[in-house]
Amino acid sequence: MIMPKDYLNFLEEYCDFYDGLVLLEEEKMKVIAENKPFLLEKIIKKEEAAVMKAQGLENKRQEMQETWAPGKTLREIVDSLPGEDAPRARQLRDRLGGAVETLRVMNQTSADVVVRRLKQIEGVIRELGEQSGQGRSLVNRSV
User: Fold this and answer.
1) Integer Cα distance of 107 and 61 in angstroms
2) Sign of dihedral through CA atoms 118, 119, 120, 124?
3) 48 touches 130 (CB < 8 A)
4) Cα–Cα distance measured from residue 77 to residue 71, given in angstroms and rounded to the nearest whole number
5) How does the average pLDDT of the chain come out, rounded?
6) Please, which residues have CB within 8 angstroms of residue 85's CB and are 6 or more apart in sequence?
7) What confidence score (pLDDT) does residue 114 get?
8) pTM, entire model
9) How far apart are alpha carbons 91 and 14 in whole angstroms?
10) Are 94 and 86 in contact, with CB atoms under 8 Å apart?
């Protein structure tokens, strides 16, 4: 099986996109750590736009892949490649997988930090409510 050059070029673009998402997630984690909610809203809007772009890129990847390797995963395709494109394809597959895993871990870490912050705020509000006789909960679930 020979991987088309346009698919390899697309994978490069796909990796660049996910590398950019990692940078955005790093920015979000910094804003969360510095407790700057006014900046967090801007980042979340960028993330929402990025999610839409990611869906479009994934659809394009699947469409391209199905035209010449129907029913195969990216891993199966890359693992079976002979020839000169194999090293580049493996590098791109690994790069993409690494970026996706990094995003997953960073996203979970951000969510954990936000939940901890909300629980801290809830504790302060509860104390104030108990002092005034009106305790309320802001966080009733775990993320």
Assistant:
1) 23
2) positive
3) no
4) 10
5) 88
6) 2, 3, 5, 8
7) 86
8) 0.79
9) 13
10) no
